[in-house]
Specification:
mainly alpha; elongated
Length: 158
């Protein structure tokens, strides 16, 4: 760990990246689990009319809400816990969770609107968050590999 000019410990870039990844994963976990349960329980019926599901395999928002909570939220929750416990394996889990979120948002846009050019601000935000999680996860994996193998391994191309 590096120190400031006053001698106090200063967090490294690796710790900053890992912390940002934990925060992003936890945010997605809470948002997806909360939002998914709200959908499944019918608490969002004013914002999400049933006619939006016309042409989909769903008659109501119970299954999509549970999928959002369990798959998207669950993956992000697992990634959060794994990243807290071990940066490298957690970062790999985060890349997967971020990709799941990106896939969910892309599917939502295409299934609900049928037009990739019609994107709500919320969808754009969560698409960006998913891409950021993938990028942060990849950066943490890379930094952990370099940190574990040392600078010599980087010079040798390992």
């Amino acid at each position: 760990m590096s120190t400031s000019s006053a001698g106090a410990p200063r967090p490294t870039r690796r710790r900053w990246l890992r912390g940002a990844l934990v925060i992003a994963d936890a945010f997605v976990a809470l948002a997806a689990i909360g939002g998914g349960l709200a959908l499944a329980l019918g608490m969002e019926s004013a914002r999400f009319p049933l006619d939006w599901l016309a042409g989909t395999p769903f008659a109501d928002y119970v299954a999509p809400g549970l999928l959002l909570a369990l798959v998207v939220g669950g993956a992000a929750a697992v990634a959060t816990a794994m990243t807290v416990r071990d940066a490298r394996t957690g970062a790999v889990a985060s890349v997967v969770a971020g990709a799941i979120l990106v896939g969910w948002i892309a599917g939502e846009i295409l299934v609900l609107t049928g037009d990739a050019e019609v994107v709500s601000p919320t969808e754009a935000f969560f698409l960006a968050v998913g891409l950021a999680i993938v990028a942060l996860g990849a950066a943490v994996v890379r930094r952990e590999r370099v940190g574990r193998d040392g600078p010599a391994a980087r010079r040798e191309g390992r």
